[in-house]
Amino acid sequence: MSTQREVGKTDPNQHPRMTKKTKKSIFKHKHMLPYWLILPTLLLIGLLTIVPLGYSIYVSFQDFDTFGNPAGFTGSNYADVLTSGTYWNSMGITFAYTFGVVAIEMFLGLVLALLVSKDSKVMGYLRWVLIIPMMVSPLVVGIIFRLMLNADMGIANYMLSAIGLPEINFLGTSLNAFLSIMLVDIWQWTPMCFLIILAGLQSLPQDPYEAARLDGASKLQVLRDITLPLLKPIIVVALVIRTMDALRMFDQVFVLTQGGPGRATEVISFLMYRVAMRFSDFGYAAAGLFILLVFTILLSYIMVRTLNRNQKEGGV
Amino acid sequence: MNLTIKDGEFLVLLGPSGCGKSTALRMLAGLEDPSSGEIYIGHQPVTDMDPKERDISMVFQSYALYPHMSVYENITYPLKIRKTPKAERKKKADEIADILEIGDLLNRKPRALSGGQRQRVALGRSLIRQPNVFLMDEPLSNLDAKLRVHMRGEIKRLHSELGITSLYVTHDQTEAMTMADRIAIMEGGHLQQLAQPNEIYHKPANKYIGGFIGSPAMNMVSGYWKTKEGKIDLDAFVWDIDREWQEILEKQLSGENMYLGIRPEDVEVSASPISEGIEAEVYVVEPLGKEMIAIMKVGDHTITAIVEPDMPLDMNQKVWLTFNSNKVHVFDGSTEKKVV
Q1: Which fold does the domain B216-332 belong to in CATH?
Q2: Which residues cross the membrane (chain A) (predicted)?
Q3: Do B58 and A214 touch (CB under 8 A)?
Q4: Which of B26, B68, B79 to mutate to test the interface with A (most CBs of A within 10 A)?
Q5: Which one, A173, B159, B184, B338, has the greatest CB density within 10 A?
Q6: CATH 3.20.20.140: does it fit domain A102-313?
Q7: Min CA distance, A79 vs chain B (Å)?
């Protein structure tokens, strides 16, 4: 008996002309709105990163003829790369270079940040001066250093001889060339570590420091027991950014050494550039770089996971 | 500010926000440098000493726990710095954890603790090395009302057990009244009165303290002494005063203006007319269960009284107010110091 009434029953709050259908479409519209809003960004990201990445994976499975024209699908590029001594030599150089520069840059960045973290006018100017190298184009930095480190007419050797030290063939021997490209990277990118760590330092809570002072901690103990543990997340962020960047370094080698002398400074990016541009073997180069990408992602993942674990365990 | 704290005393520095009480505490701790003056602990001048040399410990308003350390590591950190052997550290941490009832929290990080638990850990870290002086900077202000009452008792009990000279900063007069051996009231960077809680309440040194201490606040009515007539003119009513009062006022008042302070519990309210009573009109009543607050209008003045909870009072009802002259505080109109 009540069925008929229930069917005809209307919600007193509902507008008489608002049928069930229109209500649903409004809901659907509202539900979809955020997706519509982020669609342009997604499209842009897709165009700029996903599509080229997908294309490079596609290329890495292509065979190319001598003239650089695709010559069909092949799975041998990855096998060729993974069995190549030259590739693993370059991988070794890339990782040695990366660990070297990142460790030194992090250390110097931390020391500099600790030195200039106090608020004063002089420190304010110093902070600006310290980040200037980061603003210069890497290519320009490479050219400046090539001139400065020139064995015969560079200012570096002129200064060394002026203070009575023997001249150094900066780019002429394997070890010197390797250390020189490290030096250039350290000069240019220490400011980035410095800036990130400085920002972290200045955002740390001040109360634990005062508590530590009252507890009787020395400056060194405060650094070891309070500052460094609290800075850990920031240090990991700087570490991830710099590691990803250093693993794909190209500019300095291109301008300063062209991978030489011999293959002493031939990092992966430069090796693959040579393979692609000189031998037109785009498939091999794409495969080699894709393997480097996998290593980079793995390394970053490990670092970020360590960071997340630390954040879960500690922090108020 | 000249302030001497007795050995083993629990002194509360009380005042409104921005009066300089926390700054005074931080100067004593060595976290801020005084622009002038001297600080002594015992007979030793400590003004130029580093905080760690002063043998002071402090509980911060924000607790200031080390977020990356466990409760055990937090508590024992002052001992670790002093290179105390591990076994002794553990023994002392267990003792403190027992006193503060945080034994089951020792392995947790501060993030996993409630406000009250963090407060206990902060207390533990401060107490473990048995300092000369124990400072607390509004340690209960981040806790909810119930926990605050509980921790108030805990801290008071802890002080009586350990007997460490303590300086406690707060803006909460209830905390000050319930915990302190003596209260130092500060305002505008100056010490206004230093006395025991009861004395502060019953004999406020000036108008500011009279109005600051007590809830509801003391009724403060401005008046004008008519010397020739021996009366105090309070605008809405005139108060005849006896010979003794007249002599005191004549001697001590700097002018003719004054403030009369009457605590709400000293105001008698009668619903039926009293010949000597002051006629008033009920403005609003606020029942609190065990008592009732009645706010009344006498001319332009507002008078607050605490009355029995079952007293039948309605808004706009006429009532008659009386008060015992012995309970009235008189403050000088210009210096605002207490006269009677």
Answers
A1: OB fold (Dihydrolipoamide Acetyltransferase, E2P) (2.40.50)
A2: 33-58, 95-116, 128-149, 177-201, 222-241, 282-304
A3: yes
A4: B68
A5: B184
A6: no
A7: 47
